[in-house]
Amino acid sequence: MTDAPTPPTTTTDSGIPATSDEYSLTVGPAGPIALHDAYVVQKMQQFNRERTPERVVHAKGTGAHGYFEVTDDVSWFTKAAFLGEVGKRTEMFARFSTVAGEQGYADTVRDPRGFALKFYTEEGNFDMVGNNTPVFFVRDPSKFQDFIRSQKRLPDTGLRDNNMQWDFWTLSPESAHQVTILMSDRGTPKSLRTMNGYSSHTYSTINAAGEKFWVKWHFKTEQGPENFTDADAKAMTATDPDYHRRDLRAAIDRGEHPVWRLEMQVMPFADAAKYRFNPFDLTKVWPHEDYPPVQVGRMVLDRNPENFFAEVEQSSFSPANLVPGVGLSPDRMLMGRVFSYHDTHLHRIGTNYQQLPINAPKAEVHTYSKDGAMAYKHSGAQPVYAPNSFGGPVADPQRGADLTWWVESGELGRYAYEKHSEDDDFGQAGSLYRNVMDDTDREHLAANIVGHASDGVTSEMQQRVIEYWTLVDAGLGKKVADGLRAAAPAV
Ligand code: NDP
Ligand code: HEM
Fold this sequence. Notes:
By secondary structure, the protein is of the alpha+beta class. Helix content is 27%, strand content 15%. The chain has helices spanning 38-48, 144-151, 162-171, 176-183, 230-239, 243-253, 308-313, 332-348, 427-436, 439-453, 459-472, 474-486, and strands spanning 61-70, 89-98, 113-121, 124-131, 197-198, 203-206, 212-221, 259-268, 294-303, 326-327. It is globular and about 80 Å long. The structure holds NADPH dihydro-nicotinamide-adenine-dinucleotide phosphate (NDP) and protoporphyrin IX containing FE. Keywords: Heme, Hydrogen peroxide, Iron, Metal-binding, Oxidoreductase, Peroxidase. Residues 11-394 form the Catalase core domain. It is an enzyme of class 1 (oxidoreductase). Belongs to the catalase family.
């Protein structure tokens, strides 16, 4: 808030000077309030409508403004203008969030973190709506709602429930890789500044010569990955539930602007069919030895929002926001998300949410969409239909962003993903545990699983938990079994 030496006169929302900030219009000091005190009535009505619905997931978060700068020539795999030349800068806005909790939930609970980025490019907005993990719990959008409900609250008690979480996970073996990361200390990042961000999904790109590639985006923290232990995260949850929000804001205010390096994995288009993993399966990474990351640029967050509601709460991201040079892939989750985000924004914010300053592109908009609640941008007397003979905008297939791939025709049906030679649900989780984690990581992982699965989880469910972790790694399964035996009796 700013201190004004001579404060301006309070007005109604119509700009009419108000007569009092303190007293309603009453009939004498003890008399009734007059209904025609339009100013006080307006204050109450506005207050009652002060909230929009919170995001159905990722409700608790915070954000900051910044820029993206290209550091390396990547024109060999994309023609996207904002990645066009070394040194080029693009304005951006980032929002980080927890997933399962509501608006007032603590920042430091065990959860994946959302890592949502909006690049205001000259070709329209590009949104990268990722997480701080390179994979996800499920691989088909039909399971997303069920997964999220298992993380939320029971219908009768309104309480979160570990038993429900393990029920879903153990019945959904494709979750094992993501649950391994979630139960490791990466499930409790120390700050938003010290976590990586990942597209998780595979996207496509196309260069100026028309050559296509499959890519994955990795935003690596230059502050270095740092996490809380389970105990430290719980202590911080009790001390300062807004710790991450406060930390990011304070760091930027101090001039410590957090930086992430963008690295991308690039796969030639033709490799996908024969790659040892199905490259479109969101529960898998592409091992770095197969596709070493290439440097692309850096993202710097250097400006705090002036108004939390206008900039953070009303910000809206969508995987449908792609720019020419970047496209989707056969990842079904990604395709499902392309529908879901615009739909939820229409409900959460309103028809014309894209006209709000935080969401509006810096590029010119020439659209045949018109009118609707709260519309204020318009194109005057522009024709309202296409094609027309009166100078309305005309689509350009050369500039347009459709990035396509061949689909073998087949019978319409409900199919599992095509299995590639090394695909299984537990292999990559096992290599993370055995080959990437150090002894401390492994110890914490086992202890975190035991802590979580001994809190309100039935003994029948614990048996399934042990089997699940044994499939990730036999040694880990034994540690979990021993730990659960030694922990408090199951419910
Ligand atoms: P590499 O050794 O080449 O890379 C391992 C990656 O794991 C690094 O990017 C590192 O990121 C990250 N990492 C380190 N500790 C953890 C942890 N406790 N939890 C999650 N990630 C961690 O191995 P591969 O590429 O062959 O992959 C092996 C396993 O590593 C995978 O099964 C996957 O679980 C994990 N991983 C792989 C990624 C990939 O894109 N290939 C990305 C992230 C994880 P950092 O720089 O942040 O330390
Ligand atoms: C937020 C749906 C998978 C990352 C949301 C929201 C919905 C949603 C409805 C609320 C948006 C809002 O109200 O503004 C889905 C569906 C998915 C899916 C249907 C699968 C089919 C994923 C995956 C990731 C992800 C795989 C990460 C890789 C995010 C992030 C946000 C979000 C970061 C918060 C965006 C913000 O900060 O405003 N999702 N989601 N989601 N989702 Fe997803």
